[in-house]
Amino acid sequence: MNKTRISEIRPEEIPALVGLAAEIWREHFPPIIGAEMVEYMLEKFQSEPAIRRQMEEEAVRYYFIEEAAERVGYMAIRPEPEALFLSKIYLRQSFRGRGLSRIAMDFLVSFCREHRLCKIWLTVNRFNLGPIAAYEKLGFRKVRTQCVDVGQGYVMDDYVMEKEVAPLQSVERPSAQK
Q1: Quick check: 27 pLDDT over 90?
Q2: Widest Cα–Cα separation across the chain
Q3: pLDDT score recorded for residue 7
Q4: Which site among 35, 56, 60, 84 is 20 to 30 Å from 78 CA-CA?
Q5: For residue 3, what are the contacts with CB-CB under 8 A and spacing of at least 6?
Q6: Rounded distance, CA 136 to CA 44, Å?
Q7: Could you say which of 3.10.50.30, 3.40.640.10, 3.40.50.300, 3.40.630.30 is the CATH number of the domain covering 4-164?
Q8: How far is Cα 146 from Cα 157, in angstroms, rounded to an integer?
Q9: What is the pTM of this model?
Q10: Of the given ranges (39-43, 147-151, 164-168), which has the lowest mean pLDDT?
């Protein structure tokens, strides 16, 4: 079995991230949102200036998902006061269905516990059926829908999904009798 690694992206790695994002988005999203919106979304949210701004001004943290030292996906998170926003999680098509999302989710649950966050939330296109099913299998539930104007006449028509994160159970010691 190959070793999966999740590593935080350094600023000098942003160009590699941009290339991976373009590859994944262009292979997955055109049937769902159309090729023109894919290009718009890549420029608006996945370009080098956009990612740098997110990292520097919005406290977004990006991670590569690596399998056998190959970068096969990425995710982005933003910690909030009580929750973790999973802004992005994408895998190359040939690496989907291999349990990498579960490994990434275990990483995020550990992150939440370490930072005392009680849930993970995300948005997913309502017509992106494969990932919706994967999120539900990973313990997420749909909590509402939202439609967000992202400019140029495009909207993100999404479900908001949440996963509760239980704190680690501390081992209780029997109390001494007096």
Answers
A1: yes
A2: 74
A3: 97
A4: 35
A5: 67, 68
A6: 28
A7: 3.40.630.30
A8: 6
A9: 0.90
A10: 164-168
